[in-house]
Specification:
The structure holds 2 protein chains of 2 kinds. By secondary structure, chain A is an all-alpha fold. Chain A is about 70% helix and about 0% strand. The chains are: A mainly alpha, B alpha+beta. The interface between A and B is large, with 36 and 42 residues.
């Protein structure tokens, strides 16, 4: 290794898993918050189901990346590793979240009304609170998974968990906005203005975190600087930052002044897709830009 | 282990001996040389540093392993149990020394057929059989050490109980022994003024010390 060496172990499969897990958690968390506020019940109901489903799809990507999938049961049979490894903590968090999330959301659909508890019952509410707490952990955990990798200074930083957390929450709200587009007959334009406002706030904070993270870490070490150099490429700047953050931010700010419903729907649909696309690219680019610490 | 960089002349005998002893797959070398530049201009120098698993006392790979396939044994060796490894590669991104390798390609050395060493049942000599889809790394020739101790031999002193790379070095640059024993040769060398570890600031506490050139 004469020069800093890129990591080659984790690629788009891990990035997709992390993206789906974070988006699913964010979708559920936002849905739960909407339901607790008593707003837009229809969207929240679907979002609460879609959240665990997205996380479940994400876990298939995780399994696809494993070298020995047949041994994956070991993730559940090992208890001592729970103390230190974020991967095993994440496995448990995701699994229990999927179970509780589905248990909370399924009874509100006719197909599953035979389940002995309902959303509004005491049992249902408790399941919901546990699922909501877990969904917050689901959103937080991928950042810690990456930041625990001591071999890669670009990842081994406190800035990564907040970045992934914010991105996942944004993506969750974007999913809710897409769901709302299917039911525009039931809602006015208010729901889109509210979801858009939430996303705008999150995007501002994420831009600050991302900017601070990249500008600080490139002075921290040679390999981190190499990582930032690798990161600044058209896919990241054009995809993750412009399409994923700057464009949606501007479009959503503009949408505050729009009262024409049809134009608003198109704008919201486009920005939501952009946010999701940008979230996936953000994780992919950060994964691929990981450079090992230079041995001096 | 202590490696004297004054003596090392980068002949790579350690790399070959390790490969022959542990029967590693074609693209994987557990013992290798790190090619780096040291010193400040104009007194820069190219230095080749023998690298292997540092068998860290605070091993990051052990901390991140989700199935406890990677463990730190009582004798200090960080060992990967291939039967438990699920191939998530978390340990590879966690290791700052690039000492871990993912075995994903079982293409033999020569495309037409396997060589006798590749089909050799390595479990006969006690080496763990390599499994596709798992992570592997240097284990200080644990099979030699264990077999030697069973026969009452001392690792680092007796040839049969010592890692292959230590035996192979023609310049006698490598010294193997018990760092916990204060009067062993490795402890004595570790206390000498020129001993250093790689990346000590990461808090990994590697068990390999280098004597500076």
């Amino acid at each position: 290794m004469r020069y800093p060496e890129k990591q080659k172990s984790w690629g788009w499969v891990v990035a997709t898993y992390v993206f789906l897990a974070g988006t699913g958690g964010g979708t559920f968390l936002s849905s739960f918050i909407l339901e607790s506020m008593g707003k837009h019940e229809l969207i929240a109901r679907i979002g609460a189901l879609l959240g665990p489903v997205l996380v479940l799809i994400g876990t298939f990507f995780l399994l696809a990346d494993l070298g020995s999938v047949t041994r994956v049961y070991r993730l559940f049979s090992t208890s001592s590793a729970f103390v230190a490894s974020w991967m095993i903590r994440g496995t448990w968090i995701l699994t229990i979240f999927i179970i509780f999330g589905l248990a909370y959301s399924l009874p509100s659909f006719e197909l599953f009304e035979w389940l002995p508890w309902s959303k509004v019952s005491g049992v249902g509410q408790s399941i919901g609170i546990v699922a909501a707490l877990l969904s917050a952990l689901v959103v937080i955990y991928p950042g810690f998974l990456f930041s625990a990798a001591r071999g890669i200074p670009f990842w081994n930083t406190a800035a990564l968990p907040p970045l992934f957390f914010l991105s996942s929450l944004e993506a969750g709200i974007a999913v809710l906005a897409i769901i709302a587009l299917f039911f525009t007959a039931n809602f006015g334009v208010d729901v889109f203005h509210q979801l858009g406002a939430a996303d705008v706030g999150l995007m501002f904070i994420e831009l600050i975190v991302l900017g601070a993270y990249l500008d600080t870490i490139r002075h921290a070490s040679i390999s981190a600087a190499a990582s930032v150099r690798l990161l600044i490429n058209p896919l990241f700047i054009g995809g993750a930052v412009t399409i994923g953050l700057l464009l949606p931010l501007s479009l959503l700010l503009y949408s505050v002044f729009i009262t024409d419903a049809f134009l608003l729907y198109i704008l919201v649909g486009v920005t939501s897709v952009f946010v999701l696309f940008g979230g996936l690219l953000l994780r992919y680019c950060i994964t691929r830009a990981g450079v090992y610490v230079l041995i001096h | 282990m202590v490696i004297d960089l004054k003596r090392c002349n980068a002949c790579m005998a350690c790399t070959l001996a390790c490969k022959a002893e542990n029967l590693t797959p074609p693209d994987i070398k557990w013992a290798k040389l790190l090619d780096r530049e040291t010193g400040n201009c104009p007194k820069t120098r190219r230095e080749l540093v023998p690298m292997l698993c540092m068998q860290c006392n605070e091993a990051p790979c052990v901390k991140v392993c989700p199935t406890t396939a990677s463990i730190k044994r009582n004798d200090g060796i960080v060992w990967v149990d291939y039967d438990k490894c699920i191939g998530c590669k978390y340990c590879i991104v966690a290791c700052p020394y690039n000492s871990r390798y993912y075995y994903e390609d079982d293409t033999p050395y020569f495309l037409l057929r396997f060589t006798p060493t590749e089909v050799f049942d390595s479990t006969v000599i006690g080496v763990q059989k390599k499994q596709l889809g798992t992570v592997q790394k240097c284990d200080f020739c644990k099979h030699r050490i264990e077999a030697g101790i069973k026969e009452g031999l001392e690792p680092g002193v007796d040839w049969e109980a010592t890692p292959a790379c230590v035996n192979a070095c023609p310049a006698r640059a490598r010294v193997f022994g018990d760092l916990n024993a204060p009067d062993s040769e490795v402890s004595r060398l570790k206390r000498s003024g020129s001993a250093f570890q790689l990346l000590p600031e990461l808090g990994t506490e590697p068990s390999i010390y280098y004597l500076s050139a």
